[in-house]
Amino acid sequence: MLNERYRVCPNCQYENLQDANFCLNCGNKLSTADEKLRLPNSGDQHFLHPGVQLDESEQAIVDQLVITNGTVPNGYTRVTAVFATGDNQGERGYKGAWEDLNVNLWRLCVGNHYDGVANLKIVPTVQGDRIRLFGYADGLKKA
């Protein structure tokens, strides 16, 4: 099936089967509003992250951020060197570490009023199931 769906518990973020009415982890009631598209090897900036709830205005800001491993795009200037880390806490593989790194990049950019990052380099460290990512880049502002 190309578009597999599941239900994410809004209470504990546990991934349940699509037809689950209650969370198998904490017992919380689930509905179709909790359904998400399963993207095991891909994603965008609209993912659920445990402990992070973006409101509409925050999501709008995040949607405008430029995050690239390429050079500084036209219309932007480099303002400083920046870094962030990501840690999967031993769960969800590289995707979990990548999502955590993204959230930390968002926090960095929004908190410092950067418009994104360029020249992003990522250094992974793997210890068993635990994956840590160290990302460093150029902080950007629109010219």
Describe the structure.
- This protein has helices spanning 56-64, 93-112, and strands at 5-8, 15-17, 35-37, 66-67, 76-87, 116-127, 130-142.
- It has 143 residues and is an alpha+beta fold.
- It folds into two domains: 1-38, no CATH class; 54-142, 2-Layer Sandwich (Translation Initiation Factor IF3).
- A four-stranded mixed sheet has the order 4-6-7-5.
- Strand 6 and strand 7 form a beta hairpin.
- The model has no long low-confidence stretch (mean pLDDT 86).
- It comes from Lactiplantibacillus xiangfangensis.
- Residues 9-30 form the Zinc-ribbon domain.
- It holds the Pfam family Zn_Ribbon_1.
Adjacency order of strands in the biggest sheet? 4-6-7-5
Average residue pLDDT:
86
Ranges where pLDDT stays below 50 over 5 or more residues in a row are none
CATH topology of the largest domain: Translation Initiation Factor IF3
* Count of individual beta strands: 7
Which percent range describes the beta-strand content? Answer: 25-35%
| CATH class placement of the largest domain | Alpha Beta
Q: Classify the secondary structure makeup into a structural class.
A: alpha+beta
Q: Which descriptor suits the 3D outline?
A: globular
Biggest β-sheet description: 4 strands, mixed
From the N-terminal CA to the C-terminal CA, the straight-line distance is 45 Å
Helix content: 10-25%
Q: Work out the radius of gyration.
A: 17 Å
Pfam families: Zn_Ribbon_1
Organism: Lactiplantibacillus xiangfangensis
Protein name: Zinc-ribbon domain-containing protein
InterPro entries: Zinc_ribbon_dom
